[in-house]
Write a structure and sequence with these properties.
Blueprint: E1 2-8, H1 12-24, E2 30-33, E3 76-79, H2 87-91, H3 93-112, E4 116-119, H4 125-131, E5 134-136, E6 140-143, H5 145-160, E7 165-167, E8 174-177, E9 183-187, E10 190-199, H6 206-215, E11 220-221, E12 224-234, H7 235-245, E13 250-253, E14 260-267, E15 271-277, E16 280-286, E17 297-307, H8 315-330, E18 334-337, H9 338-342, H10 349-354, E19 364-365, H11 374-390, E20 400-408, E21 412-413, E22 426-428, H12 439-454
Parallel strand pairs: 1-2, 1-10, 2-7, 10-22, 18-19
Antiparallel strand pairs: 3-6, 4-6, 5-13, 8-9, 9-10, 11-21, 12-17, 12-20, 13-14, 14-17, 15-16, 18-20
Helix pairs in contact: 1-12, 3-5, 3-12
Bound molecules: flavin-adenine dinucleotide.
Flavin-adenine dinucleotide binds next to helix 1, strand 3, strand 16 and helix 12.
Length: 457
């Protein structure tokens, strides 16, 4: 089989490159190879009844399949260069923002109409944060919500399916260059060739991506992992912020170690969920647009970035070891009341039940101080007290902390200003490139590369 363009991975990066190629160059033959299932077949077997914990499916329905890791996410599309990736370093700040807005227009016109766009512009919280040694980062955020995000993905697939060839449940095992230019991919069902190849394999494809880069001698670098906890508290405590901003990205510099701690992935009236990355269970969160699915709690992560220098290179391995430790002690995610953490004791079922915050995730009550390194935990505790000044009640005894939350970063692939690797015609985009870490940046990188290919550059 021969195609003009093969896209590997149908997450936001792959979807938006396919979509843009279909729009700009309908004459090109485009195939998308995806390791996971089509959207409607993506079902995690954990039902909380018969299957309570991860049974390590061959492909994880949460991370793989049409829509990628973002399919069941909260669908928060942040339009900013301040976080979510460093796409702007390759393509420039203005173009990065323009592309994120373009992606937003497509989402809105495919089911997202009626969803809200929030913005920090002109917010009085900037000053309040500053007065309390906190920094509020600038962003606009479209909150699709898990339910509408799903509808948008359904609509995008409907529009593309007759123009783009999709192969689901077909992981690409091997990628090689052809002597006269172009690429060959190998799958369990056979092989295919193409003139240009877009790789968008996300976080779950990180190990495969490393192999490809090694085999094709594409330079890479890596040294970061973010570690922390997910905080859950009554929604009313943060409502003055979340009503206006929905998600506030707040950074605090700790007094003790001068480390940066930041809020991440805020879910007003949301739920805390398990996340499985390569068999390791960590914590995450999302929320719904549908009022009937809203809870009384808000959750967000507090993360500390850990950078390593020579001779240690395996930052993800470090994060994995800490997550494994929590899995070993708690059989999965651990939950602890802030008051118990401060008193140096583990939480138990009784104390959690008696608390004023009812957990939205069935996690094992335990002691996070046995899992997280002291420096990271100290930073998180400091930040909780700093947040208490702008949102009184954050440092209440009953505030719940779930651990661990880990944000793994892919190694960063060396790419030029076209997001093209040292192999001409091989573009590496989205989270798999290490350049992006978010829905909006990953999607924008897909549109960018599609336009490059469409214009023959
Ligand atoms: C629970 C959760 C909530 C999140 N919430 C948000 C949010 O609200 N806002 C936000 O900005 N970001 C969020 N994120 C992050 C966001 O989902 C990612 O940044 C985004 O999905 C990255 O897009 P991508 O296309 O680069 O990769 P992915 O979405 O990871 O997609 C990659 C795809 O490639 C496939 N693949 C991998 N290897 C191969 C192979 N060898 N062959 C074929 N296919 C392969 C995978 O199956 C996958 O479907 C969340 C992530 C999770 C897990």
């Amino acid at each position: 089989m021969k195609y003009d363009v093969i896209i590997i991975g149908a997450g936001p990066g792959g979807i938006f490159s396919a979509y843009e190629l279909m729009k700009k160059r309908p004459d090109l033959s485009v195939a998308v190879y995806e390791a996971g299932y089509p959207l409607e077949k993506r079902k995690c077997p954990i039902d909380g009844d018969k299957v309570k914990t991860c049974i390590r499916c061959k492909t994880c329905a949460i991370m793989n399949g049409f829509g990628g890791a973002g399919a069941f996410s909260d669908g928060k599309y942040n339009i900013t260069n301040d976080f979510g990736g460093t796409l702007y370093e390759h393509i420039g700040r203005r173009e990065a923002l323009d592309l994120m807005r373009y992606v937003d227009d497509i989402n809105v016109s495919h089911g997202g109409e009626g969803t809200q766009m929030y913005s920090t512009t002109g917010s009085e919280f900037k000053k309040l944060c500053m007065q309390n040694k906190l920094t509020l980062l600038d962003a606009s955020v479209r909150h699709l919500g898990t339910d509408i995000n799903y509808v948008v993905l359904q609509n995008l697939y409907k529009e593309m399916k007759d123009h783009v060839t999709f192969f689901f449940n077909t992981p690409v095992r091997h990628l090689e260059t052809l002597e006269n230019g172009g690429f060959r991919i190998l799958t369990d069902d056979g092989e295919a060739e193409c003139g240009r190849c877009i790789v968008s394999v996300g976080r779950s494809g990180s190990k495969w991506m490393e192999t490809v880069c090694r085999e094709l001698e594409i330079p890479t670098s890596s040294n970061r992992v973010d570690l922390g906890v997910r905080v859950e508290l009554p929604a009313v405590i943060f409502s003055h912020l979340t009503d206006q901003l929905y998600e506030s990205k707040i950074v605090y510099r700790t007094e003790k170690f001068e480390d940066s701690v930041r809020t991440f992935c805020m879910n007003p009236h949301g739920i805390v969920v398990n996340e499985n990355t390569n068999g390791i269970v960590t914590v995450n969160g999302h929320s719904f647009e549908d009022p009937s699915k809203k809870t009384d709690n808000t959750n967000f992560a507090l993360l500390v970035a850990k950078h390593f220098s020579e001779p240690f290179k395996d930052s993800n391995g470090y994060g994995e070891s800490i997550a494994r430790l929590s899995n070993m002690l708690g059989g999965g995610v651990i939950v602890q009341r802030f008051g118990d953490l401060e008193r140096g004791r583990r939480s138990n079922e009784k104390r959690i039940l008696e608390g004023t915050v009812q957990p939205t995730l069935a996690a094992t009550p335990g002691d996070l101080s046995l899992v997280l390194p002291k420096r990271i935990l100290d930073g998180i505790v400091e930040m909780i007290y700093a947040l208490d000044k702008i949102a009184p009640g954050t440092a209440n005894d009953d505030t719940l902390l779930y651990g661990v939350e880990v944000k793994f970063y892919n190694m960063e692939v060396k790419l030029d200003e076209n997001l093209e690797s040292s192999c001409p015609g091989l573009y590496i985009i989205g989270d798999g490139s290490g350049v992006t870490h978010s829905l909006s940046h990953a999607s924008a990188s897909g549109v960018f590369v599609a336009r490059r290919i469409a214009s023959g550059r």
